[in-house]
Amino acid sequence: MIPAGKIDFMSSISLKKLILHEDAELLIVNKPAGMPVLPDGWEKDAPYLVKLLEEQYGKLWIIHRLDKTTSGVMVFAILAEAHRALNMQFEQHEVQKVYHAIVVGEPHWDYHTARHALRMDMGHSHRTVVDHSKGKSAETAFRVLESHSGTSLLEAIPGTGRTHQIRVHAYALGFPLLGDTLYNAPPTDLIARPALHSQSLTFTHPATCERVSFSAPYPDDFRAALEKLRAGL
Asked: Could you tell me the domains of the chain?
């Protein structure tokens, strides 16, 4: 039974609306915000994305993950061979991941690359912290797309894949994600989660060896927040 106040994703989300592309090798999905990819350690009986997909497609291979609160494009492998090929591309940084984020503040720069070393803090909040002495190297390239009334829409391209990397790098630069109270963003009524969306993935298709790109549209909450900010509301 799903607790009161929780969304029953298994019944409320049409599976067809999640699928961006499918072929014999791959499944490209638009992950909803609020749905974990795998069982949540705190809510083991709650629905999760892999279970929803495997009920329709059978065994899928997980190649990468998105945080529970993050929306957007993900790729799953249908065949083990495709899984191995894409894993290698991720490990060799041959996959380009592009995110869009709404942040608090207006950067004075148009482009900036953050290179703060990051370390997982195993406290109750499960934050990632900047630690230049003990942290692991991390890199995120940011570009300002637009600014509105003390907020900005940024493109973020991570060069590494550390936990909460984009969120922490944006916070370390002084521009926490809108709604990201874990990283000191002020409370807001505009969006009920960190405003982060996996916009696109570009990689070499394991079957055709051609470079392909897939993108996911903004979800309703992200789009509504951005429209209000553009309107000055």
From this structure: 9-230 (3.30.2350.10)
